[in-house]
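Human: We require from you a standard protein entry with sequence in single-letter code and fold as tokens, and nothing else.

Assistant:
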Amino acid sequence: MRNLDLAALFAWIGWADNVWVEALETTAQVRARMSRQKSRDTQVELALRRALHAAGLRFRVHRRPVKGVRREADIVFGPARVAVFVDGCFWHGCPEHATWPRRNADFWRGKIEGNRVRDADTDVRLAQAGWLAVRVWEHESPLEAAERVRAVVEERRRRR
């Protein structure tokens, strides 16, 4: 596939997430921008981790809280059973800041709505296993989010 020209590459049809899909129309600028999107250790996530650490909390990063559940939390407090997810406003459909792209609109709406459904499913699965999922939006103040997480972790530690 390496020898295909770009037009052939973007007209290619194949499998993605066990669904037969057609490659999307896109531009070089969009491809370049999307390839730079980080999925972990984002600025927001790092700021939140620094604030939590400064508050005296210790945690694990990028772990699956529950074995057998293929979902990775950004920050995990094992003994307190708290999993923190830092959600991007675009990717997770923030009610305040979500934007809907005009190009490939059906694809992106399905992708973002699918992310919302998966997030809700993750929260339910963790709750069934005795965990609490805490969602932090990327637009939230890291200090305010850290205080919210700290309060939840300390409350759950007191109950154990």
